Amino acid sequence: MSSRIDIIDLSAGYSGRTAISDINLVIDAKKVTALIGPSGCGKSTLLRCINAMHMTAAGATVSGRVEHDGIDIYSSNADPVDVRRKIGMVFQRPNPFPTMSIAENVIAGLRLGRGQRRKNHDEAIEKALTRAGLWNEVKDRLNKPGAGLSGGQQQRLCIARALAVEPDVLLMDEPCSALDPISTLTIEDTIAELKERYTIVIVTHNLQQAARVSDSTAFLTLAGAGQPGRLVEFGATTQLFNAPREPATEDYITGKVG
């Protein structure tokens, strides 16, 4: 699988209000794509549409297509559970299960899915924690509560939990917004290593972070008050930040508009 995502004429909303409209976007495999734009422009809605989590919200609507390697995740034949296994998500705030140990947190998704032997669980724990850059820090305390880790470690634990089910794509919704600068840099280093194996899409308000970690960037904004978010410009991160094609993109990046 190439793990490419094609977003075609996508619109989505809640209870009759359109949040994003007519989005067309190609997310390349094994690259980091950043979604940037002002608050309320639909970045998180777009992200949640990529693995159909948007449809878990009350009154959610969607039209258009989201294709993972050519297969529409919104087709009648698509299994939402399987979609979310292949396209995992890490949320804004670290959310380890408080009553579970570090090891139990990592394999929580595996236990909900196809049953595996304990030996395979042990292998999955080490592999996921290693890929999340956390193994050496926690390998001697796997039975301790996951909630006892620092904020940055908790977020990497959540990344490990998402990786344990062997996804193709990893979605990250403001994964560093609740973290200190040192933890943020650690997560960014982890993202750089993960893109060798996974397709990654990250929502961030931090333009410097988008410039540091992403290969491509999509800029979304609002057409006007009460209007849905729309895609203004998409391209290589270096091009979009250094020579944006659209005046609205330049205004946002230079801080003329927020």
CATH architect. name:
3-Layer(aba) Sandwich
In DSSP terms (H or I, runs of 4 or more residues), the helix count works out at: 11
Taken in chain order, the helices and strands follow as EEEHEEHEHHHHHEHEHEEHH
For the record, what is the CATH homologous superfamily label?
P-loop containing nucleotide triphosphate hydrolases
Strand order of the largest sheet: 6-7-8-3-9-10
Q: Tell me how many strands there are.
A: 10
Give average pLDDT, whole number.
93
Helix content: 25-40%
Query: How many separate domains?
Result: 1
Q: What is the CATH T-level topology?
A: Rossmann fold
Unreliable parts: none
Beta content comes to 25-35%
Detailed description of the structure:
This protein has 258 residues and is an alpha/beta fold. The protein has one domain: Rossmann fold, CATH 3.40.50.300. It is built from 11 helices and 10 strands. It has helices spanning 43-49, 80-86, 102-106, 108-112, 118-131, 135-138, 151-163, 181-194, 207-213, 237-242, 247-253, and strands spanning 5-14, 17-27, 32-36, 60-68, 71-72, 87-90, 169-173, 199-203, 216-222, 229-236. A 6-stranded mixed sheet has the order 6-7-8-3-9-10, sandwiched between helices. α8 (181-194) links the parallel β7 (169-173) and β8 (199-203). α5 (118-131) packs across α7 (151-163) and α7 (151-163) runs parallel beside α8 (181-194). The longest helix is centred in the middle third of the chain and has 14 residues, at 118-131. It is globular, with a radius of gyration of 18 Å. The mean pLDDT is 93.
